[in-house]
Amino acid sequence: NDLLVAHAQAGRTVVRLKGGDPFVLGRGGEEALHCLAHAVPVEVVPGVTSAVSVPAAAGIPVTHRGITTSVVVASAHTGAGNALEAATAAPPEATLVLLMGLSGLAGTAEELISSGRSPDTLVAVISEGWTPRQRTVTGTLATIAADVSGADLPGPVVIVVGEVVGLRTQLGDLTGA
């Protein structure tokens, strides 16, 4: 934040480029507030959040007629707590999209099962979305930790929990590559 302000006050044009949308589990709001508090004007150019675009690249719509009309996005960076709060407030068929949750995947899956999600709920873990290195591992809440453990996926990942994951078998990767 201080670097943004310092360079702007030195007369430079500063661009803070972030993959996805800077206001969805990013630091866009914090950075904008800090700049404005130091009289540095801010222009935000919204992006498409990775919570929607990365599943799309992997052939997984986060909502789909006849499967679910709701999606919940939560950070899983610090464990399952945010995901569980979000899942509790959502309809049981809602798609959960969890960002930054690779290291805690096993615990998150276990806690989702303990909180009532079926162990057979479909899950996809997508690494390096929209790049030529994109990889997707699918499984269920009961199997996904083991499925991912041998795949050596680099983080960060986007995790999709819900029956929409099943559409990937028909759609496949949609990156155009």
The H-and-E topology, N to C, reads as HHHEHEHEEHEH
Strand order of the largest sheet: 1-2-5-3-4
Instruction: Please mark out the parts with pLDDT under 50 across 5 or more consecutive residues, or reply none.
Output: none
Write down the overall geometry.
Answer: elongated
Please summarize the sheet with the most strands. Answer: 5 strands, mixed
Structural class: alpha+beta
Distance between the termini: 36 Å
Query: With helices defined by DSSP (H or I, 4 residues minimum), what is the helix count?
Result: 7
What is the percent of helical residues? 25-40%
Strand content: 15-25%
Could you tell me the mean pLDDT? Answer: 90
- The rounded Rg comes to 18 Å
Q: How many beta strands in the DSSP annotation?
A: 5
Task: Itemize the secondary structure elements and their pairings.
Layout: H1 2-9, H2 28-37, H3 50-57, E1 71-75, H4 81-89, E2 95-99, H5 105-114, E3 122-127, E4 135-140, H6 144-149, E5 157-161, H7 168-171
Parallel strand pairs: 1-2
Antiparallel strand pairs: 2-5, 3-4, 3-5
Could you explain the architecture of this structure?
Strands 1-2-5-3-4 form a five-stranded mixed β-sheet, with helices on both faces. It has seven helices and five strands; from the N terminus they run H-H-H-E-H-E-H-E-E-H-E-H. Strand 3 and strand 4 (135-140) form a beta hairpin. The mean pLDDT is 90. The longest helix is centred in the N-terminal third of the chain and has 10 residues, at 28-37. It is an alpha+beta fold.
